Amino acid sequence: MGLTFKNLGLLVATLFASAFWLGYSWGDSGQPSFPPVTHQATAAECAACHMAYPAGLLPARSWQRMMATLDRHFGEDASLSPEETAAITRYLVGNAADSATANERMRRIASGIAFNAAPLRITETPYFGYLHDEVPASVWKRAKIGSRANCIACHTRAETGSFAEREIKIPKD
Amino acid sequence: MKRYYLAVPLLFLATLARAETPQQILALYQQQAGGASVARGEKFFFAKVPQASGEMASCTSCHTDNPKAIGKTRAHKPIDPLAPVANRERLTDPAKVEKWFKRNCKDVLARECTAQEKADFLAFLISVK
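Above: the input entities. Below: the structure tokens describing the complete assembly.
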């Protein structure tokens, strides 16, 4: 099989398609990697204490477990009325990492978690660990970071759902 | 005569729905408690309470020991000041006040707060100049 124009054309087309696909899945397409919370009650209640983490960061079973144990939420009482709990659960489950509308990154989060596990901490998902394994323990302890739950300390545009590498600014102290 | 039994809780509910200044919300708790003490409220705010973990906690763990200062949640999100003098939105929504008393009292004291404690604490916050 010689190098014909047809083969060359196919090669070029494949390269372009791959580049486009990679660019898209690496979050350079301008789309947020994890669309921020759009449900008003979810945004208001979750963000009372921490960033309103995008629903796509955990699978549905994690959100269900989380919302069923709000009275013991990481050592604090975050309980809501039954109506609020139901509405927020519906939103989180409907937009979870393993939901029908999940993007490539969300599906990677979901597929990394054992089928019989329902982690409550986003930071305990294998995907988070894989992407943060080069951050030394001493960096996490810096005063301006303080907690792994504090995305915005380094991911300057986390609240827009964007976690692109070029937007990372790690505080020096 | 029977109708009056209904009128009292209805009146209370009506006040609750309308209350929107810190003084009005304080008055609601004062009614239930029969009074309020700024000094007791201040003591309540600073009181260190041993936790199941063995550590000590108090309102000041998150809200700092200055009610006019910005606090910090355990997830490192800023908390707006507690004193109405430093935060005009504070103590303007009775449902919100109740919600956070319920949560935070359970976190620090492992029980709900009494009407007396709530009245004292609001009186203290309002007294901060």
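Note for the figure: DSSP finds seven helices and no strands in chain A.
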